[in-house]
Write a structure and sequence with these properties.
mainly alpha; two-stranded antiparallel ribbon; globular
Length: 492
């Protein structure tokens, strides 16, 4: 016991020395030891910068694509989401070889690179947002960084701090950006957001120490990375191996696809279709965000009282009602009612993750969580595109003032007015129908743990390879049941 306790600090000191000086060359720098707080600052600054631009981006989007605002919003966000889904596993695997700090720098730099283009050329701005999806996986690297610097016992709390920091940045920044935009001008907001992004990059360069010890990395930067590590569809291909897991993944697909689409366009919809002011949208974001945090706080007690399956169904019911309010609502108070329901519906995905964990064997936690998270990542790309196309099909494009006159145009506008009065938000109604299907699937998921995962030994061995990992936004990180650093990490 004494030997182990003495040996551990010596190993830590050696790894710190190796990480700082190797062959006389400085390989890493930073302030203090790597900690969760370094990751929190990185996340806060990045999303605070983008949060400032919430209202200006809506204005520029409408000015750039006046005839197809919602369609282009869906396509831009959809392309970005799909590229992020495809690149996240590769970037995560590379960060195991080259270190976390390098990829924190790369992901933050390229994610924020489109910001200054907003004042220069709006077409290039939206094109760069789409392309930046290749590197828009800061969360993946941050979760890996946190896994490196925390113990198994503290890791869940640390992940919660990261998520709370992200939410806090978006609660504050849209309101501040809207105020400054009304008080001063749009270029000032862009300049401020650019300055904060530069500060984030500078913070990573100067203050963030490398969290991945040199001794656990491969001996050279040319170490091979297997296709299994870089394949974003690896987890999805395992979905059909067990009927219970398959039903859970179908529930995620049917419920999160409309949720991802909604999050991609709801602020644009409120401002341009429901005529919310910039301040109203900012207050809406803040209130829904705070209520969502409160809902997450009571989630544990709710699951204890009702059980995981009933909690999932309750969350799905709230989501269905919320989407119906958004779809059929035509008054301001209806949008606020939908927002409150949205905050309550935020318990759905955490409840599904807990249900999957409870009803899976301990040696398959990483695999099943990877399936669910992979499905969710795919929805992040497909959902926005689906909503944009449905808006376009139903002519919800804000193009009334741009259309020409004439009898044909009058008939066209009359049809649009009928659609608009009956169903102002068609994609939300379509999403509600998908959630109804998700409720039907969830109702038939067995509540008892599944015992049918008795596979052939070869298959069981293949599944157990991922025991010690948990998937976070497409990135494999050390899971709660795994050691802090796997013994054969250097072989990856």
């Amino acid at each position: 016991m004494t030997k182990k306790s003495l040996r551990k600090p010596i190993m830590v000191l050696r790894s710190r020395k190796t990480a700082i000086i190797k062959d006389g060359v400085i390989t890493s720098s930073g302030i203090g030891e790597p900690s969760v707080y370094h990751a929190l600052v990185v996340i806060f600054l990045e999303f605070f910068a983008w949060g400032l631009l919430t209202m200006p981006v809506i204005n520029v989007l409408n000015q750039t694509f006046p005839d197809h605002t919602f369609l282009m919003n869906g396509l831009v966000m959809g392309i970005k989401g799909i590229l992020s889904f495809l690149s996240a596993p590769l970037i995560g695997a590379l960060s195991d070889v080259w270190g976390r700090k390098f990829f924190l720098l790369i992901t933050v730099f390229f994610t924020c690179a489109p910001i200054p283009l907003m004042s220069i050329n709006s077409w290039w701005f939206f094109a760069m947002i789409s392309i930046s999806g290749v590197f828009a996986v800061t969360f993946s690297v941050v979760f890996a960084y946190v896994a490196d610097v925390t113990t198994v016992e503290d890791r869940s709390r640390a992940y919660g701090l990261v998520s709370a920091t992200f939410a806090a940045s978006l609660v504050i920044s849209p309101a501040l950006g809207a105020y400054l935009n009304d008080k001063y001008s749009e270029p000032l907001i862009v300049a401020l957001a650019t300055a904060i992004a530069v500060l984030d990059v500078f913070f990573i360069l100067v203050a963030v120490p490398e969290s991945l010890p040199e001794k656990v990395r491969p001996s050279s930067w040319g170490a091979p990375i297997s296709w299994e590590q870089a394949d974003p569809f690896a987890a999805l291909r395992k979905v059909g191996l067990d009927q219970t897991i398959l039903m859970q993944c179908v529930t995620v697909l049917l419920s999160y696809l409309p949720e991802a689409g909604q999050y991609s366009c709801i602020f644009v919809y409120l401002k341009l279709k429901m005529h919310f002011s910039s301040i109203d949208v900012s207050i809406f974001i803040a209130v829904v965000g705070i209520l969502s945090i409160l809902a997450q706080v009571i989630l544990g007690d709710l699951m204890k009282a009702l059980g995981a399956k009933r909690t999932i169904i309750i969350g799905l019911l709230f989501e269905m009602l919320q989407l119906l309010w958004y779809g059929f609502g035509s008054q301001t108070w209806m949008m606020w009612a939908a927002g409150i329901l949205a905050s309550l519906a935020s318990i759905t995905y955490p409840a599904i993750s807990a249900f999957v964990s409870i009803h899976s064997n301990p040696d398959q936690q990483g695999v099943v969580q990877g399936m669910v998270t992979g499905m969710r990542g795919l929805c992040n790309g497909l959902g926005p595109a689906m909503f944009g196309v449905i808006f376009y099909v139903f002519h919800v494009d804000l193009n009334d003032e741009h259309a020409g006159g004439g009898a044909a145009a009058g008939v066209h506008h009359h049809i649009e007015d009928e659609y608009s009065q009956l169903m102002p938000g068609p994609p939300f109604v379509f999403g509600a129908l998908m959630v109804i299907c998700a409720i039907a699937v969830a109702a038939f998921i067995p509540e008892a743990p599944s015992d049918n995962i008795r596979r052939p030994s070869g298959e069981r061995k293949r599944l157990s390879l991922d025991v010690d990992y948990e998937y976070e936004r497409g990135r494999k990180v050390a899971g709660p049941l795994s050691p802090l650093m796997h013994q054969d990490s250097a072989q990856l």
